[in-house]
Amino acid sequence: MAREHANVRLDMWGSADWRSLSRDAQWLYQLLLTHPKTNRAGVCEWHPGRLSQMASDTAPSDIQTSAAELEQKYFIVLDEVTDEVLIRSYVKYDGVLKQPNLSVTMANDWAGVASVRIRAVVAHEVRKVRDARPEYPIWELEKLQTLLGSPGIDVKGDPSVDPSVDPSVEGEAMASVRGRSTSTSTSTATDASHLGEGEGLKKMPETRLPEDWAPTASHIERARDAGIDLLDEVENFRLHAETHDRRAANWNGAFTTWLKKATPKQKSKAPAEWWLRQ
After folding, report:
1. pLDDT at residue 158 in the model
2. How far is CA 152 from each of CA 166, 191, 260, rounded to the nearest angstrom?
3. How confident is the model at residue 201 (pLDDT cuts 50, 70, 90)?
4. How far apart are CA 246 and CA 241, in angstroms?
5. Which of 4, 28, 46, 230 is within CB 3.0–4.6 Å of 85 for a Cys-Cys bond?
């Protein structure tokens, strides 16, 4: 069931946390909340270049700066490998869990999320609502059992999962779930048993940068939107990896982090689309 409206709570203006945000961060949060592609689990596609086009005076770098502020204060959770962003408290405040039909839609949308970390955060937030509102009639729905039995991450209450740390290597994010429990959800080995054997929990081995590695279409778009010289950054990235004998479990995620720290150049040596022709 596609959304036709967004539930915007007026009492958020009484929140000190909300008022501590900058104007631009508040705008981005409200944009994500009302975006047509935000699903019933509170997850939206994460493309700073596209989001910047929703206002005439906004650049992709403005979106990234505001997103960093929102994530640091736990309003959103980003996964820049899967290009997804979560409004952390969406399932708590939207009212989706008060209605069986919408709850089923939410569970289906959750299952379609690519990010392991975001799925784990949603699972934790849903269990918080269950603990606070056990009288809701939806907890026995078959569609919700996989979600309720999945590992959870409490990004706000568990200092071991810092939102300022790049979550691009999903194996590392899930490793933080195993063997830990949070104050309001049971993220234990018992929860993990609801997944298929090894599903989403096996940590990928770290390797050297493959000789045939190349930036993805997402990297190309990010570089173009940020005015970054992709050829220079790829060359520097390779040199850094070789010089320091780096190992990584997810080189695409590592390069995403690299691009986040790159300095825009006035003029690129070659168009980013060059990579698509290789």
Report:
1. 54
2. 18, 8, 27
3. very low
4. 5
5. 46
